[in-house]
Amino acid sequence: MVEIRSRFPVRPHESYGTKVAGRLVLPFDARQKSRQLAKLDTGEEVALVLPRGTVLRGGDFVVTNDSRVVEVVASPEPLLHVVCASPEALARAAYHLGNRHVPVQVGEGWIRLAADHVLEVMLQGLGATVSPVDAPFEPEAGAYGAHHRHDNESGHGGRIHEFDASGALAKST
User: Fold this and answer.
1) 156/35 Cα distance (integer angstroms)
2) Range of the domain at 31
3) Is 56 exposed, middle or buried (0-12, 13-18, 19+ CB in 10 A)?
4) What predicted TM-score, i.e. pTM, was given to this entire model?
5) CA 89, CA 129: separation in Å to the nearest integer?
6) Within this chain, do residues 60 and 93 fall inside the same structural domain, yes or no?
7) pLDDT, tens digit (0-9, with 9 covering 90-100), for 13-25
8) CA-based, 20 to 30 A from 34: which of 8, 138, 141, 170?
9) Within a 13 Å sphere around the CA of 96, how many CA atoms are in the beta-carbon half?
10) Which of 84, 57, 78 is closest to 153 using CA atoms?
11) Do 80 and 21 lie in a common domain?
């Protein structure tokens, strides 16, 4: 079986002879597990045997033990999209989520978290507007986490992959 043991150190460039051989499409929960079986978009089964604590982000590239480069894609998953009437109210909502150690993705004027009915009710009780959304999830690494980022990015550290209505990958930004 093909194994993935490490990240590819740079963004692949076909001009240097490096081609992307496939995509590994995973939700966040699976992208934070360093030991697991998964399938590439081609259907080929691979074993992830990454260093403990490795979190893969959408837009990362990994290398197989037979020297193929594979792109990591953050798949859409059920999330709660949270907005508030003021920055203070949004900060308050984020504080209460952080107090519960809930992973959150932070955007301009919004936060997202994995769908959870209990947290949805709590946020609504704090006055937040909460909407369900299916989207790739790239939560913050945390104050003491690794701050893995691509050179041209800031924030969460991953690329945003946009999906069409059927769930197919439309484009990456």
Assistant:
1) 23
2) 2-74
3) buried
4) 0.78
5) 11
6) no
7) 765 778 899 999 9
8) 170
9) 17
10) 57
11) no
**Do 70 and 6 share a structural domain?**
yes
CA–CA gap between residue 24 and residue 101 (Å, rounded): 27
Category of 43 on φ-ψ map: left (φ > 0), alpha (ψ -120 to 50) or beta? left
pLDDT tens digits along 86-124: 999 999 999 999 999 999 999 999 999 999 999 999 999
The dihedral of CA 95, 96, 99, 103: what is its sign?
negative
Tokens coding 136: 């790739």
In terms of domains, do 96 and 66 share one?
Answer: no
Give the C-alpha separation, 65 to 51, whole Å.
14
Nearest-Å Rg of the Cα atoms of the chain is 17
Q: Are residues 58 and 23 in the same domain?
A: yes
Residue 145, domain member (yes or no): no
